[in-house]
Design goal:
Blueprint: E1 30-34, H1 44-59, E2 62-69, E3 76-77, E4 80-91, E5 94-100, H2 104-115, E6 119-123, H3 130-137, E7 141-146, H4 154-162, H5 164-167, E8 172-175, H6 178-187, E9 193-194, H7 201-205, E10 218-223, H8 232-244, E11 249-254, H9 260-269, E12 275-279, H10 283-292, E13 295-298, H11 308-316, E14 320-323, H12 326-329, E15 338-341, H13 346-357, H14 360-373, H15 379-399
Parallel strand pairs: 1-2, 1-6, 2-4, 6-7, 7-8, 8-9, 10-11, 10-13, 11-12, 13-14, 14-15
Antiparallel strand pairs: 3-4, 4-5
Helix pairs in contact: 1-15, 2-3, 8-13, 11-14
Length: 401
Amino acid sequence: MSGLRAPRVATPADPTTGAAKTPGSRPPLKIGIVTPYGYPLPGGVNEHVRYTYEAMRRMGHDVWIITSKYGKQRESEGHVIRLGTGWAVPANGSVGRVTLGWRFKQQAREILEAESFDILHFHEPFVPFLSPTVLDQSRTVNVATFHAFGGFSPSYWFGSRVVRHLVAKLDGRVAVSGAARHFINRYFPADYRIIPNGVDLERYTGAEPMEELRDGTLNILFVGRLEDRKGLIHLLKAYNRLRKRHVDARLLVVGDGPRRREYRRWVAVRRVRDVDFLGRVSDDAKARYFASADIFCAPSTGQESFGIVLLEAMAAGVPIVASDIHGYKQVVQRDVQGFLVDPKNHRGLAAALYALAHDPELRDRMGEAGRARAPEYSWDRVTERIVDYYYEVRARAASRG
């Protein structure tokens, strides 16, 4: 198993080097967090893994991340262990991940035997083939978190008939929202604990705005992957209507994806002014764009189980215009932190943006309401709920022998 196990090294927060602090009153746990999405590649699940890993380490637990290898990533570094090779595939209107490897089963068995985890926590446990392989080899307490939401899924429908032996190995199940629970319960009926995603409060409440953007022009911010389901085309149409109504605004587009050229061409052909395609940016730069924004817009068309970007806007005190979809309306309270608009309705988006653009007091009120709600979703609070659930599930499993 040479090259598979990671050396135990000690620094506080980075999963590539992590270390633990003094445990509290309950005995510390040894936890393996399994993500099939090629940690630390960008994405909502890996962000969840990163922040909960760091919070668990601060709580005194011995935490490791088990993931797949993409590109030139090392097989292991610090507290990150990589198995197999990951590949990107189209899925759910976005890009999914599949992990392949010749020695999966043997590698997984060797690592689990060597590390003797108290808890294995699987994020999307049935994404092929990393998570199912590790779950199949597990002989400890297994907890799974389900993040996805959507309509009918042929892959889940088929999977529900072939992974029943793996479903039986799950001792605890978590969904990040009511929407995610509704989706997964259709295929794998069971009791699910809802524990939401979180937000890095300190990063977003303490960010400094970008001076060049504080020139009196209204800043409308979009953050997301440039793909159909994130709905940027509908925001571009809404913004074009605002400009025709002589609203002095600029649209800041943070993110990249397969539709970038198409969206840039749409803007150029119609000569829509002041649309800045900023590409992918660092976490610190993203926080500064939120701090510079007057309005945040999330025009996703559906298939969102939870809106992490909405939490980021709320933590930054930015009012929101978002699609009225299941994963979003559980985060944003209608007409409190922002406006919810029918998806794919650029006229409705334009009307909501126009209302906020012309009412600074309303923007301030909604922004402050978001700032007040955001601490409910701090990563420390979210992680405390996850760890409490670990102890609960572990006790329940022990009582069953």
